[in-house]
Amino acid sequence: MEKFELDILGCGSATPSLRHLPSSQIVNFRDNLFMIDCAEGAQLQMRRMGLKFSRLNHIFISHLHGDHCLGLPGLLSTLALHQRTGEVVVHMFADGIRLFKPLVDFLARERTYDLRWEEVSPSGGIVFENKSLTVEAFRLYHRVPTVGYLFREKPKSRHLNGDMIRFHNIGIRDLAAIKEGADYVTPDGRVIANTLLTTPADPSMSYAYCSDTTFSAKVAEAVAGVDTLYHEATYASDQASKARERGHSTAAEAAEIAKAAGVKRLILGHFSKRYYNENQHLAEARAIFPNTVLANEGLTFDLNSPCSTTINE
Amino acid sequence: MEKFELDILGCGSATPSLRHLPSSQIVNFRDNLFMIDCAEGAQLQMRRMGLKFSRLNHIFISHLHGDHCLGLPGLLSTLALHQRTGEVVVHMFADGIRLFKPLVDFLARERTYDLRWEEVSPSGGIVFENKSLTVEAFRLYHRVPTVGYLFREKPKSRHLNGDMIRFHNIGIRDLAAIKEGADYVTPDGRVIANTLLTTPADPSMSYAYCSDTTFSAKVAEAVAGVDTLYHEATYASDQASKARERGHSTAAEAAEIAKAAGVKRLILGHFSKRYYNENQHLAEARAIFPNTVLANEGLTFDLNSPCSTTINE
User: Fold this and answer.
1) Which of A16, A44, A103 sits opposite B43 (nearest CB)?
2) Residues A237-274, buried b or exposed e (16+ Cβ, 10 A)?
3) Pick from A115, A119, A120: which is nearest to A136 by CA?
4) Any idea what DSSP says for residue B204?
5) Do A18 and B106 touch (CB under 8 A)?
6) Residue B1 and residue B30: Cα distance in Å, rounded?
7) How confident is the model at residue B126 (pLDDT cuts 50, 70, 90)?
8) SS3 assignment, position A126
9) Is B259 exposed, middle or buried, given 0-12, 13-18 or 19+ CB atoms closer than 10 A?
10) Cα separation, B255 vs B248, whole angstroms
């Protein structure tokens, strides 16, 4: 399976603290890095985790609260100092582009890369697509316009059975069609069934990021069937009314979304500083959705294996 | 002596790294905190060093490179989330106010404190004054307009000799004049010399911050006679031509400034990431100016005692 990982740069809420940094994470798709949210400190966390600035091409911002976007001008300046080449695309709401672009243009005037600002609609839609992956923004329900992001691998090719390909002496030009499921017709007219020439494609995996949002059944609909769901759990159940009031979720609510959406794994994050640890969050979520884990700075999750533990813990 | 300390939040150049954070420091004057420069990460470093957000009222920015100012929107947002009251004044160039004010107004709309933006002139001048302290901006010589900041305690009152004050039964209303050096005239007309009633005032201390700047004799003039000088030393002598080209200084050049200015102590900072440690900087500077020390994140220097080591090392 080709690499599809999630690196947690920060999973705290509101402000940097000694326990957590605010929201930022990297989806590492075959060594192409996609950043979701970019709080203050994100660039330093990339260094800590050994993630290469040269592999970062897309940054997706969920909403315009400081704890989700204030690392952006520093990161974009650093890319200029590192003489990054190629293109970097920042996907954010129009207000964000209006506020950040002049600052970045002033501070990183002499940049060596192409910086493109792509407007994201608060109502969502496809924001990125290539031959292997789509990234879709979808609406969340917070105090200000907010979107989540859903990464979905496209269907993959079947694996060729090398022994059988050689046995039938099949030419290279025919292989692409066979990988897509075609049967093979030999020069003397015999049909070799595709299932004899290939083994099934790897499953196409998916990952959804939901932060920040209050509990909403619409979120469960938007992320229905994804393999791994990162859902904010700012509070445990002791602060359920505060969660509602501030447009956030409890861990139990995140678990209800995971259950309703039929996902395979739930990662909790965006933790309030009022807790000394997130044991209560984990217990309350697991009572509803057993395959729940806690995000933490520095952790890497394998998005190909929704039932595995982290790669580096 | 009343508290006059320097807390180093960050003393690296260019970008946050695993060894140093970019420029930010706190002058703690009698538990009033004055920040100089505010790089990304400054707010978290304040927490690490136990410096209270509630005591921070003035922030002075030296110039508009990202590694000296990009912590500002995050810090000002955090003050709003902490429901800071009172006034916070940001002193910076007009371009900085134009770029940062809209961002902060958008992200920290609902702030509980008064935020004032005070324009600093690139040619310098007094930027703060109260009954005990002045802060003066002065010109530095970098690739873009840049100023240093000079903190100067005003002359202090003489110390009353309690025994003598009681012996002559001097009334409270007369004490202020005596502390300023007046003699005392007894009800029966005798003159008691001030030197019998008081001991000398503590010396008034001073501190100057010079980052970023190329080597210039004008800097030595501006900081002549200060007690403690923080001077950038981005490079050691191996990179002298690079220092000149980039508008920076070597450690030896910083020491030449300290020597020419007749300061008591030199603190080196703004270190390039190309070095694994700053031993070379220190040796080269000490050969010219012996009382040289290295800044480092988390260190606190006592500005009342220019010959002491750090408070917390």
Assistant:
1) A16
2) eebeeebeebbbbbbbbbbbbbeebebbbbbbbbbbbe
3) A120
4) P
5) no
6) 10
7) very high
8) strand
9) middle
10) 14
Q: Which residues of B sit within 8 Å Cβ distance of A? A: 14-18, 21, 40-41, 43-44, 47-48, 64-67, 70-71, 73-74, 77-78, 81-82, 95, 99-100, 102-103, 106-108
pLDDT band with cut points at 50, 70 and 90 for residue A58: very high
* Closest CA relative to residue A146, chosen from A138, A154, A135: A138
Q: What are the structure tokens assigned to B36, written together? A: 């100089």
**pLDDT tens digits for range A286-310:** 999 999 999 999 999 999 999 887 8
Residue B78 Ramachandran class (φ > 0 left, ψ -120 to 50 alpha, else beta): alpha
Residue A261 is encoded by which pair of tokens? 């959406």
CA-closest candidate to residue A135, choices A117, A147, A143: A147
State the sign of the Cα–Cα–Cα–Cα dihedral B103, B105, B106, B108.
positive
Q: How many CB atoms lie within 10 A of CB B200?
A: 9
Q: Which of A292, A293, A283, A276 is nearest to A237 (CA)?
A: A283
Q: Count other C-beta atoms under 10 Å from residue B271's C-beta.
A: 26
pLDDT of residue B313 exceeding 80, the answer is no
Q: In the predicted model, what is the mean pLDDT of chain B?
A: 96
Chain-chain contact of B99 with A102 (C-beta, under 8 angstroms): yes
What residue has token string 């954010």? A92
Q: Write down the catalytic residue from B7, B37, B67, B227.
A: B67
Give residue-wise pLDDT tens across range A233-263.
Answer: 999 999 999 999 999 999 999 999 999 999 9
| Secondary structure, 3-state, chain B | CCCEEEEEEECECCCCCCCCCECEEEEEECCEEEEEEECCCHHHHHHHCCCCHHHEEEEECCCCCHHHHCCHHHHHHHHHHCCCCCEEEEEECHHHHHHHHHHHHHHCCCCCCEEEEEECCCCCEEEEECCCEEEEEEECCCCCCCEEEEEEECCCCCEECHHHHHHCCCCHHHHHHHHCCCCEECCCCCEECHHHHEECCCCCCEEEEECCCCCCHHHHHHCCCCCEEEEECCECHHHHHHHHHCCCCEHHHHHHHHHHHCCCEEEEECECCCCCCCHHHHHHHHCCCCCEEECCCCCEEECCCCCCCCCCC
Q: Residues of B with CB below 8 A from A66's CB?
A: 73-74, 77-78, 107-108
Contacts of A213 (CB under 8 A, 6+ apart): A140, A141, A142, A146, A148, A219, A231, A232, A247, A248, A249
Q: What SS3 class is residue A43?
A: helix
CA A180 to chain CA centroid, Å, is 27
Mean pLDDT of A265-294: 97
Four-CA torsion B91, B117, A81, A112, nearest 10 degrees: -140
Whole-number Å distance between alpha carbons of A13 and A289: 23
Other beta carbons within 10 angstroms of residue B266's beta carbon come to 26
Instruction: Please judge whether A74 and B16 are an interchain contact, meaning their C-beta atoms are less than 8 angstroms apart.
Output: yes
